[in-house]
Design brief:
The chain has 335 residues and is of the alpha+beta class. It is built from 9 helices and 15 strands. Bound molecules: 1,6-di-O-phosphono-alpha-D-fructofuranose (AFP).
Length: 335
């Protein structure tokens, strides 16, 4: 007997646990999964761009060859627009949110989706894993196209979040508030099949992920924390190993599987860190908390940071709970 469970079946089973569910969130998640399958196909062909035509050129059908991040943005937007469940789309690639008119839908479109269509895109040419990150909220306004108030909600209000890694295989990980689940794309049948049910991150790890080239720009507390992780001490499992891809989804996914802390701190150049609260930190924070880990800006819980603007940046400390707590302690003790 086959024991295959598709992501679609999993989403529906989760929906059945909630008696008042209308099925709209399930449809939205399914639209995102389908869009990401299409993006995955194009990511796999990225190395052929030099052979088939550079971005900016026309392809054989006379269409312009788009940059992959622009392409990913367009695919996600059109699937969610046509699905009719979102009243606003907020993309890292767009200056402001895209309000959606009810003309695409017969029923109330009640969700807001934030997404980073292709994170780590500077790694594409080196064949390094990249990813899509998404986050879903319920609207607060009653009807019509979504508003800025709908789009700027606290991370704790997310109803679902997830990411897709385009790596040695394509993996989609999502949570709708009932655990974290991972699905691997089987390219032969074109389906995401469950491969990682109810993922949990270890409480403490032996791995840190940070761009250590920025050491001289860090605060004293941050420098001392990394120095501490590099010291040898058998009892506390030090020194830690260092692993840094420079592609957030890839670094996060590895740490979720094997334990670890990922850090992008504030520094003298990036006073608020580099990563975006709404597109990167909040969705990954919801996932890590669901997996038993912790996410903070070094002091405050990421999910409780009040957003002021769509592209707001935040320092990010995320991963195994004890490691994040220890980092927070070092920052506090060193001012
Ligand atoms: P790109 O999308 O420009 O490649 O940036 C990737 C990213 O936003 C995130 O995926 C990485 O974790 C982080 O930046 C890496 O930043 P540094 O190159 O400064 O280490």
């Amino acid at each position: 007997m086959y024991r295959l469970k598709t992501i679609y079946r999993h989403i529906i089973e989760e929906e059945r646990l909630i008696p008042e569910a209308t099925g709209q969130l399930s449809d939205l998640l399914t639209d995102i999964a389908l869009a990401c399958k299409i993006i995955s196909l194009e990511v796999n062909r990225a190395g052929l761009v030099d052979i088939l035509g550079l971005t900016g050129d026309e392809n054989v059908q006379g269409e312009e060859v788009k940059k992959l991040d622009v392409y990913a943005n367009d695919v996600l937007k059109s699937f969610m627009r046509m699905g009719g469940h979102a009243c606003a789309l907020c993309s890292e690639e767009e200056e402001t949110f895209v309000p959606i008119d009810e003309v695409y839908s017969d029923y109330s479109h009640k969700y807001i989706v934030h997404f980073d269509p292709l994170d780590g895109s500077s790694n594409i040419d080196a064949n390094i894993s990249i990813g899509t990150i998404f986050s879903i909220y319920k609207r607060v306004s009653k009807r019509g196209p979504g508003t800025m108030e709908d789009c700027l909600q606290l991370g704790v209000k997310q109803v679902a979040a997830g990411y897709v890694v385009y790596g040695s295989s394509t993996i989609m990980v999502y949570t709708a508030g009932n655990g974290v689940h991972g699905f691997t794309l089987d390219p032969t049948i074109g389906e995401f099949l469950i491969s990682h049910e109810n993922m949990k991150i270890s409480k403490k790890s032996r791995t840190y992920s940070v761009n250590e080239g920025n050491y001289s720009k860090w605060s004293k507390g941050m420098q001392k924390f990394i120095d501490h992780l590099k010291e040898a001490d058998k009892d506390t499992g030090r020194p830690y190993s260092s692993r840094y891809v420079g592609s957030l989804v890839a670094d996060f996914h590895r740490n979720l599987l094997y334990g670890g802390i990922f850090i992008y701190p504030a520094d003298t150049k990036n006073k608020n860190g580099k990563l975006r609260l709404m597109y990167e930190a909040n969705p990954l924070a919801m996932i890590i908390e669901q997996a038993g880990g912790r996410a903070s800006d070094g002091k405050n819980r990421i999910l409780e940071i009040v957003p002021q603007s769509l592209h707001q940046r935040t320092p990010l400390f995320i991963g195994s709970e004890e490691d994040v707590l220890l980092a927070e302690r070092f920052l506090k003790e060193n001012g």
